[in-house]
Amino acid sequence: MRTPEDYKESLRGMRPNVYKFGNLIEDVTTHPATRRMVEGHARIYEIALDDRYRDLATTESALTGERVSRYLSLITGPQDMIANSRLKRLMFNLTGTCTGGRCVGWNALNALWAITYEIDAGHGTDYHDRLRRWLGDAQRHDIAVSGALTDPKGNRKLGPSQQADPDAYLHIVERRSDGIVVRGAKVMIAGVSASNEVFVLPTGSYGEDDADYSVAFVTPRDAEGITVIEARHPSDSRDLEEGEDSPVRGGGITQGYVLFDDVFVPEERVFMAGEWQYTGRLIMSFIGPYRSAIGGCVAGQGDLMIGAAVMMSRAHGLGERAIRDKIVAMATNNETTFGMGVAAGVLGRPHPSGVWQPDRLLANVNKVHVATLPYETKRLTQEVAGGIGETGCMPSWTDLTDPEYGDNLRRYLTTEVPGEERYRLARFIEWLTIGGGVPGTMHGGGSPDGARMLIGRSLDIDRLV
């Protein structure tokens, strides 16, 4: 299996195609705009080699029986789903935020495993065998694979083929004997710049007129014709500065807009090409494990918020007793999303292809909780911190260390702990609650309104009356 340095070296060996602030990023492993995200994803490789975490971070390959990264594994039973939630929680504990450049690709793999099996059974294609061969190779090389679903979408009232701009949804523009050519974009893609390859899936359930938009494949992130534009996030200019205003060095999450300008995808990497009837089922197969395990993600960051709140209360000379009710409320939020996700995984069912599919109703209920409860946890953390952790009432690190007046600033920040320590703690709380560490809890894995719609469809009202 790869070491963290092996992983970083693989990124350095890729064609530079990532931009931010109008500039090409030559090396994502060292550039200040992306290096923290890469370091967070490198922790996945680190824990796979650590005796404390190896059983969680790795598992036995269903293809070969060899030990492989769990992020490149098939989820074949409830224990795998429990491990999924636990691993996501651990990664948030270790990095402070999301490692979305791996988890979306993992969900895409498992969704495609089920749907390629169904397409082959119905149409006599060989998509499933292609995916099996690709997965075996991916496991052997221990690559990092992200996932891309969200299209620009244009006018939300119209379907893909009805848009004024045909590229508002990614689509096939040419079919060749050895593959396809695609054009369009995938937007807000988490951690894509930290990946070696990218799974691309449709973003919704399509109709017959949308056959060219019904496409799924996997491609190297640096394939010819692909350009990644890194999105802005709160306080990201701090990443370009020295000092302590960007408080987390070993983790971070960014999103990219991935532009596909007539990108060729070889046949062996194509897993859907026009089978529009299966797009809805593909999306349902994707959101089940995603909306289940994301409860572990937000619980993991919630753990850090509890710890930070307690440390700040101690720094203020109050201790945890003064905030006991808030701690209990925060812990309740954490365990609600984590427990609901585990329940969705345990109460799932096997798919004929061999993968496990979580309970759809509970997974969507969890998505609604994930889109609400973490924000209450953030509010409580800010309430404990006071203004310096939330309202922008903190001087910069440059000012705090200024030779003329820095001593006074540090003196006035001093409480039960030195001013520098309180400063770092406040910056960490800011990062967790309104800054660069905030993950996509509202829309990650789909919108809460979409989840509510699926909950409504699942209800058997007559049975309840």
Shape: globular
- Into which percentage range does the β-strand content fall? 5-15%
Strand order of the largest sheet: 2-1-10-11-7-6
Would you tell me which CATH topology of the largest domain applies?
A: Butyryl-CoA Dehydrogenase, subunit A, domain 2
The tally of structural domains comes to 2
Q: Report on the biggest sheet.
A: 6 strands, mixed
How would you describe what is shown here?
The chain is α+β, with helices and mostly antiparallel strands and 465 residues long. The protein has helices at residues 4-12, 35-48, 54-57, 78-95, 100-123, 127-141, 279-315, 324-346, 360-370, 373-385, 397-400, 406-413, 419-433, 448-458, 461-464; strands spanning 18-20, 23-25, 58-60, 67-69, 145-148, 171-176, 179-190, 197-200, 215-220, 226-230, 255-266, 270-273, 349-350, 356-357. It has a six-stranded mixed sheet with strand order 2-1-10-11-7-6, covered by helices on one side. A four-stranded mixed sheet has the order 5-8-9-12. A two-stranded antiparallel ribbon has the order 3-4. A hairpin with a 2-residue loop joins strand 1 (18-20) and strand 2.
